[in-house]
Write a sequence for this structure.
């Protein structure tokens, strides 16, 4: 089955490395890897020549005169830095230079693989401002795009917006149009912006694809496909090739997208774990985007439901979790004794004939251990035993090889059955309980037989629920900033696809489609980007923070959705996205570039903060240093020591963007036995638009129990009778 952005770890043996380096010191020293050297903002200097500056710095550390041979990229349009092939020693020397903020290896990030819009109350009839929307440019940093897709046709589009400064350099046989206005390629393994994987086509069409009627995946998930802002333009930055998406390419894409004039950037990519901000390419790119008024939407990651698994942690990014919609795709298996079990897979195959004999992998192998055989591992199944039968396996992998050995179908086991993925053969995937029942059936019946049906749609009344795979908080880098920020649809999403890509990862699967179903925070991220663009079309002058605030404070509360002991806010942040409400939030929590700089002061040294800000910012010291807790974030969080009573004060201010004359009252929703929350003042009266008012929130409690994930949550709602401006408050014990 398609993986959710799994990463291969390579384990090194320390002793071996020590021994080798003892003998091969010279050779190891010559080992070069691509690093990113981040220098912060571009100097405000007309005569500044970034490339010669970059070469000059490199020249100081490489032994030869051939610095140019090692320089692989220069970032010079929106911020300053470069990528170079460096030895460890060169890396250290660069990192110690005062004009360098950080040096870090370029790592490989991964893609974090329609009715979904209707499901969030965003139907085709909602109010739009098509003329402004068509001046909106969505920058999509992904695996490229399929330019001929109907979702990107330019019928009815005028020329690109005047502010557009990009180009169409999509390679051979790649043409842009008035909808798809730009393309650039950074992936070293491909010369064309054409999408070979389908992922970038899917995300671009979710954010801003045209309205295309009557599409489906072999009759499943049928309906109208459309992006959040169908009139907006798309600019594509291809950073992912077959081997993933290198961070040096991602930074180059940000450098261009910002300078090209993108209004919103969507990045459905990530790594398996969070990095410090100065080593995180998406955080760095998004910071400079924010400084130019551009909001970045980023997938939270697909490493859930473990806690602290969210990899997108920067406060200037809109970090998006993935949740279900009311449409599920299920797949039934009928036992010959008449019992039907419901599995989770997208199975478009119809098994001919009625009942097929069922055999357990363990009973179909002469060569392998019981565990391997039960898992239907490669090479374990005996052709003679499985031919013409349905094979029961204990895992979700291994079907490719087994199919080749003649099996007609598969029953697999899932840890979490909330997500159905496309299967390459007739297959159903059952949750543990049903899977054990089937096992029992194979053993208790002389001639067990089953029929695997074609998938069908079912209504899910519990939706929206955060998907099991969606990465959770707490934020391991800045625990006072709740991440993810928001949840959006990301389960079994139908959108445009690349007609040359396989719909599954199976080599045996020859199906090619123009619209396909994918799940992941990769799919929820462009939903949020589309929603952000929709808000921006109504409020072109709003800051990234204001747009983000409006999406967060109008989000619908969600239910705690899994069995983990973690707070629900760690799964969905402020809640489920509601774009229609977000265009009229009433109040917004603003944050300027200076506010984010102040926040950086709490995690970086002043010289590095100055390089990033590009000005003479000073970090205050001592008691005035400012705490993360006081950053004007639209949600409130703090970390406390277990078993110790606490009294925490959060300073916030809100800006009136609703009605000029308005009075807002604060209401606290809390579990009063554990915390006491006070807001001062409790009433905010505004006389004009854009007026700002400060308030503070004090949260006091007797102490959290000293347990894993102990937390207490509440929420603050400012209401004027028309608008409801909601912020979750989360006090937890986990760094
Ligand atoms: C970086 O240098 C190494 C030699 O240490 C070489 O094998 C590698 O191909 C170089 N990478 C690039 C992208 O030039
Ligand atoms: C769209 O927005 C523009 C600029 O804000 C405004 O002049 C125009 O009246 C709006 N049109 C509609 C239909 O709201
Ligand atoms: C251009 O690409 C399209 C889509 O893959 C293909 O159908 C067409 O034949 C290509 N044209 C040329 C000249 O390569
Ligand atoms: C079922 O039969 C049809 C028509 O004979 C055939 O096209 C199809 O491939 C068969 N399906 C399977 C799963 O064997
Ligand atoms: C069992 O393993 C042997 C050696 O690896 C291999 O030659 C043989 O084909 C295997 N038998 C089956 C039934 O897979
Ligand atoms: C069936 O029972 C046998 C013997 O009790 C056991 O070894 C085997 O694992 C069982 N198979 C299943 C599918 O539970
Ligand atoms: C069929 O077999 C399964 C597994 O043993 C069992 O749970 C179920 O009750 C049986 N159904 C009928 C109708 O006997
Ligand atoms: C939460 O779940 C309960 C019980 O299933 C349900 O009654 C309630 O409506 C749900 N609330 C939301 C916001 O979905
Ligand atoms: C949640 O708990 C229930 C009851 O303990 C259990 O049946 C279910 O499998 C659990 N779900 C997950 C996703 O762990
Ligand atoms: C920083 O301050 C120095 C001394 O006051 C001044 O000369 C310089 O122009 C300032 N730089 C910037 C970027 O503002
Ligand atoms: C706001 O209310 C005051 C007092 O009710 C009134 O005098 C004033 O005209 C109102 N201003 C606006 C902009 O509606
Ligand atoms: C409030 O806290 C108590 C004690 O921890 C807990 O038992 C109860 O379920 C909580 N109630 C709500 C509504 O969260």
């Amino acid at each position: 089955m398609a993986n959710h952005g799994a990463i291969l770890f390579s384990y090194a043996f320390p002793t071996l490395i020590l021994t080798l380096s003892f003998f091969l010191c010279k050779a190891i020293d010559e080992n070069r890897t691509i690093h990113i050297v981040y220098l912060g903002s571009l100097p405000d200097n007309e005569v500044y020549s970034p490339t010669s500056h970059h070469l000059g710095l490199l020249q100081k550390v490489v032994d030869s005169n051939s610095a140019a041979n090692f320089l692989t990229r220069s970032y010079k349009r929106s911020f300053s830095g470069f990528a170079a092939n460096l030895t460890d020693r060169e890396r250290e020397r660069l990192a110690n230079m005062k004009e360098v903020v950080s040096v870090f290896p370029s790592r490989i990030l991964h893609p974090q693989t329609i009715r979904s819009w209707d499901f969030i109350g965003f139907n085709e009839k909602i109010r739009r401002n098509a003329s402004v929307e068509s001046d909106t440019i969505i920058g999509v940093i992904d695996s490229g795009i399929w330019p001929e897709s109907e979702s990107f046709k330019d019928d009815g589009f005028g020329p690109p917006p005047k502010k557009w400064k990009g180009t169409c350099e999509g390679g051979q046989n790649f043409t842009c149009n008035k909808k798809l206005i730009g393309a650039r390629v950074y992936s070293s393994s491909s010369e064309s912006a054409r999408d070979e994987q389908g992922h970038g086509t899917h995300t671009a069409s979710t954010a801003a694809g045209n309205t295309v009627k009557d599409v489906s995946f072999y009759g499943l998930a049928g309906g109208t496909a459309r992006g959040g802002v169908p009139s907006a333009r798309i600019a594509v930055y291809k950073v992912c090739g077959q081997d993933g998406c290198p961070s040096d390419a991602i930074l180059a894409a940000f450098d261009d997208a910002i300078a090209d004039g993108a209004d919103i950037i969507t990045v459905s990519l990530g790594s398996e774990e969070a990095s410090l901000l100065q080593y995180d390419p998406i955080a760095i790119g998004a910071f400079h985007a924010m400084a130019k008024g551009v909001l970045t939407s980023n997938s939270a990651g697909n490493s859930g439901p473990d806690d602290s698994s969210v990899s997108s942690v920067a406060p200037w990014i809109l970090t998006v979790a993935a949740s279900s919609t009311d449409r599920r795709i299920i797949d039934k298996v009928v036992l010959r004794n008449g019992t039907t079990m419901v599995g989770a897979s997208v199975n478009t195959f119809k098994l001919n004939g009625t009942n097929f004999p069922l055999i357990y992998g363990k009973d179909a192998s002469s060569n392998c251990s019981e565990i391997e055989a039960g898992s239907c591992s490669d090479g374990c199944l005996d052709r003679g035993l499985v031919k013409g039968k349905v094979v029961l396996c204990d895992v979700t992998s291994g079907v490719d090889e087994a199919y080749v050995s003649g099996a007609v179908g598969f029953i697999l086991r899932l840890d979490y059955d909330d997500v159905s993925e496309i299967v390459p053969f007739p297959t159903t995937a059952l949750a543990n309980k049903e899977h054990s029942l089937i096992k029992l059936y194979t053993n208790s019946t002389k001639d067990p037989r089953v029929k695997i049906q074609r998938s069908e749609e079912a209504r899910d009344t519990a939706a929206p629920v955060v998907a099991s795979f969606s990465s959770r908080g707490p934020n391991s880098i800045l625990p006072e900033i709740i991440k993810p920020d928001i949840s959006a649809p990301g389960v079994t999403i139908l959108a445009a696809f690349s007609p040359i890509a396989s719909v599954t990862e199976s080599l045996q699967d020859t199906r090619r489609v123009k619209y396909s179903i994918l799940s992941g925070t990769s799919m929820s991220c462009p939903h949020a980007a589309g929603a952000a663009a929709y808000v921006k079309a109504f409020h072109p002058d709003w800051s990234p923070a204001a747009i983000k605030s409006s999406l967060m404070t109008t989000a619908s509360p969600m239910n705690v959705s899994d069995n983990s002991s973690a707070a629900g806010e760690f799964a969905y942040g402020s809640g489920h996205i509601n774009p229609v409400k977000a265009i009229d939030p009433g109040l917004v929590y603003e944050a300027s570039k200076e506010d984010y700089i102040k926040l950086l002061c709490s995690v970086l040294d002043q010289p590095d903060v100055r390089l990033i800000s590009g000005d003479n910012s000073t970090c205050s010291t001592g008691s005035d240093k400012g705490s993360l807790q006081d950053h004007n974030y639209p949600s409130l969080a703090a970390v406390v020591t277990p078993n110790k009573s606490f009294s925490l004060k959060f300073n916030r201010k809100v800006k009136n963007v609703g009605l000029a004359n308005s009075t807002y009252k604060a209401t606290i929703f809390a579990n009063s036995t554990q915390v006491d929350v006070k807001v001062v003042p409790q009433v905010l009266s505004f006389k004009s638009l854009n007026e700002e008012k400060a308030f503070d929130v004090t949260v006091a409690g007797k102490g959290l129990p000293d347990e894993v994930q102990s937390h207490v949550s509440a929420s603050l709602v400012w209401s004027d009778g028309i608008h409801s401006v909601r912020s979750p408050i989360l006090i937890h014990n986990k760094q």
Observations:
- Residues 17 and 23 are 10 Å apart (CA to CA).
- The pocket of 2-acetamido-2-deoxy-beta-D-glucopyranose (ligand 5) is lined by residues 366-367, 379, 382 (CB under 6 Å).
- The two ends are 34 Å apart (CA to CA).
- The chain has four domains: 33-105, 136-325+466-577, 327-459, 587-591+631-733.
